[in-house]
Every structure is written in C-alpha cells, then in structure tokens.
Amino acid sequence: MATFVSPPASTTATQPTGLKPTVIEKEKVDYLNLPCPIPYEEIHREAFMSLKPELFEGLRFDFTKGLNPKFALSHSVLMGPTEIPSQSPETIKIPTAHYEFGANYLDPKLMLVGRIMTDGRLNARIKCDLSENLILKSSAQLTNEPHMSNVMASFDYKGKDYRSQFQLGSGALFGASYIQSVTPNVSLGGEVFWTGQHRKSGIGYGARYNNDKMVATGQVASTGMVLLSYVQKVSEKVSLASEFVYNHMSKDVTATFGYDYILRQCRLRGKIDSNGCVGALLEERLNLGLNFILSAEIDHRKKDYKFGFGMTVGE
Amino acid sequence: MSSARISGGVSLPDRGSSSKSGGGVISRMASSFSQSPVVYQGKRVASDAAFVTKKLLKSTGKAAWIAGTTFLVLIVPLIIEMDRDQQLSELELQHASLLGSSPSASGPQK
Q1: What is the mean pLDDT of residues A200-223?
Q2: Which among A155, A274, A285 has a CA at the least distance from the CA of B84?
Q3: Could you tell me the pLDDT band of residue B8, with boundaries at 50, 70 and 90?
Q4: Residue A72 · residue A103 · CB < 8 Å
Q5: Cβ contacts of A296 on chain B, cutoff 8 Å
C-alpha cells in the first residue's frame, strides 16, 4: 500500500536576497508552533465545495425564520422527480413532493439541528463542545422502513498541531482518524475503520498541501480508492478546481473540472466531468435575505437532463 | 452486388443483377454499357462517398449539439453574471466620483 505524499515544494518565500539585502529574509519555520490542521474528513473541503454543488431537480423552496438570536425554525418544500435505482440502464424517475420542517438551535458551545419530512424521515444532528478541545458530534437518521435507520457519533480531540477523531456507528461501525501538521503548509493524516456488519476493515492515508493561492490534496484508501484534488484561487472572486478519482475495485476513473465564481450578487459554480456530465448551480441574491437558485445538470451519455429552480428566504 | 458494412448497422443497398437474355439490340447494348466495369466502379465510389458524408454529417451534428448545450449551461450564465457585476461596479464608480466631486465643486462657491 503506497503512502501518498504530495510534493513538499519549498513553500516559504525564497526572496532573491542577493539583489536586495534589505528584503525580508526567509522566515525560519518554527516547528513547535505549527497551525492546527483541517479535520481529516474535511481534507478535500475546497474541492468538494466547488465541484459538488447541491444540484437538484424540480422546485425547491426554503424559508428560515429566526425567533431568537439562537433559535430558528425552517420550512422547506421540495417538488420534483426523484430517481430510484433500477437494474436496467434506463433511469426511472417518480415525481414526489414533500414538506420538511426543521428547527435549529445555535450556541457557541452547543448546536442542535433537527429535520422531519412528510414521508416520515427524521434527521437530527448534535454538536457539543464537551471541553475546550473535545467535541462530540452525533447524527441520526430514522425512517419508517425497518433496518434503514442509522446513528453515528464521533469524538474529536483537537491538539496543538494535530487532530484525532474516534467514530462509532450503528451496525457496529468503528473508525478512527488522525491528522498532523508537518510544516506550516503540509499536513498528513491517516484513518482506520472496521465494520461489523459486512466484516470489512480498511485503512487510508491523506495528505494536504495548503498555500495562499492553492490547495492540493491526495487520499488513498485500502478500499481501492485514490482521490487527488487541486484547487487554485485565481483571484478573490474566482477559483478553479479539479479532481481525479480512481477506484481500483470497479476500475472506475473519473476526472472533474470546475469553476467557482463568487461575485457580489451571486455565486456561480460549474463543473464538467469525464463521464459526460455537465452541471451548474447559480445562487443569486435578489434582495436582503432572498436568494434565487437555478440548477442544471446534463448527462450526455445517459441523455438525462435535470433542471431545477428554487428560492431561499431568510438569513 | 452488395457489400456489408460492419459498423453502425448501415449497409449499402443490394444491387440486383439484370439479365442479359431477351430484349432487342438497343436494350442489350444499354444493359452492357450499364454493366460495364467503369460505370459499375463509378457508382460504387459515389455511393460510398455519400455514405461517408452522411456519417460525417451526423457525427458533426452530434458534436455540435453536445458542444452547444454544454456552452449554454456552463458559459452563458457566467457571461451574464460577469456583465452584471461589471455594470454594478461601473455604477458604483460613477456614484463615488459624483459624491467625491460635489463637495469640492460647491466649496469655492461659498
């Protein structure tokens, strides 16, 4: 199993000290004062934010009303076709419509989020700061159908320049991960997991190189997955991202390229895939607290076209 | 004579062989001319060229459709939004210059 390490290029600014001796000298790296790294599950955070927007099909309407600085209620209506997995290559879509009611409680130390849908599904999330460095996160999904509910809890410990996490899940799922800052720009991490239900265990490694202008990450897992991503911040408003996924078990290779434009009145994300998928999501701010969303996804290979529009009212 | 093409399931049309027996001298001469090898080759080349051109046109059409719809989904909203952002910043610049110049313009009048 190969340990993936992204190229540790010399990141600290090497100024041409020969020309101007008064220029800032190369900063000495203080290895005892490294910054705290990003949590291991968010190692690909920038790439996922740009390349995996929440594309949807149909109508989406969200209304969030804050009753308190800490407490808010939300109502949400979704109408549109949903795909059901079918054995034949044709996609089967069934029109569905449901209403979702939710409540959020936000505190600096405690966060509670709950959502319930008209088809009987309940989503709940808790994030609690047990102490300054220990965080408990838990999420549950309960459904009407038997054997489809699951609960997951995780304990995160944040050290000075490392983070470690221990995860428990329903169905006898155990996982642990650890990530450490090696230099001010590079962090390396690893994870192990064990499922009791399928009797599977796995181990994975990840690495992340962070700069002011770009982020490069890589992840290898013993499930045969290799994920590489690169995000470049071209300017304050524009960033470009690319991702490469290789699955050794199913011999699946996917490359994705995308852009993310954050302008004053809108946010536009577009992506194009090597599977022949093109998608775009536009979130435009019409007024204070009023957002208009347009989503488009075209799959040229399967000839599957999905378009959606929606509005988000509230902060 | 018909030749079977493997790809695409398209095959050239079957050419029925015309009979030489019966008919007058003119019809026999005409049939011999129409069955001469040169004309036969010419016909085959022409139909092959038509076949290839049709396939090329179809694939160009498909490629143009894919490129067109992808451009419509990815690039057109981008152009529209960038144009709006530019208009907004121009407006702001105008406002800023207007507000900036008015106190200095009204100053020497007092």
Answers
A1: 92
A2: A285
A3: low
A4: yes
A5: 73
CA-CA distances (angstroms) from residue A238 to A48, A241, A250, B22? Answer: 15, 10, 35, 82
Contact A279 B88 (CB under 8 A): no
CB-closest option in B70, B81, B88 to A261: B81
Q: How far is A269 from chain B (nearest CA, A)?
A: 9
Q: Check whether A231 has a pLDDT greater than 50.
A: yes
> How many residues comprise chain B?
110
| Rounded Cα–Cα distance for residues A271 and B53 (Å) | 34
Structure tokens at A11: 């990141």
Q: Count of H helices and E strands in chain B?
A: 3, 0
Q: What fold characterizes domain A41-313?
A: Porin (2.40.160)
Closest residue, chain B, to A264 (C-alpha): B85
**Reduced to 3 states, what is the DSSP secondary structure of residue B53?**
helix
* ipTM of the complex in this document: 0.76
Residue contact B73–A278, C-beta within 8 A: yes
Question: Domain spans of chain A?
Answer: 41-313
Identify which of A264, A280, A298 has the shortest CB distance to residue B88. A264
Query: Position of tokens 């051109």?
Result: B53
Residue range B46-55, pLDDT digits in tens: 999 999 999 9
Q: How far is A93 from chain B (nearest CA, A)?
A: 22
Which of B59, B65, B71, B74 has the most A C-beta neighbours within 10 Å, making it the best mutation to test the interface with A?
B74
Joined together, the tokens standing for residue A125 give 């999330």
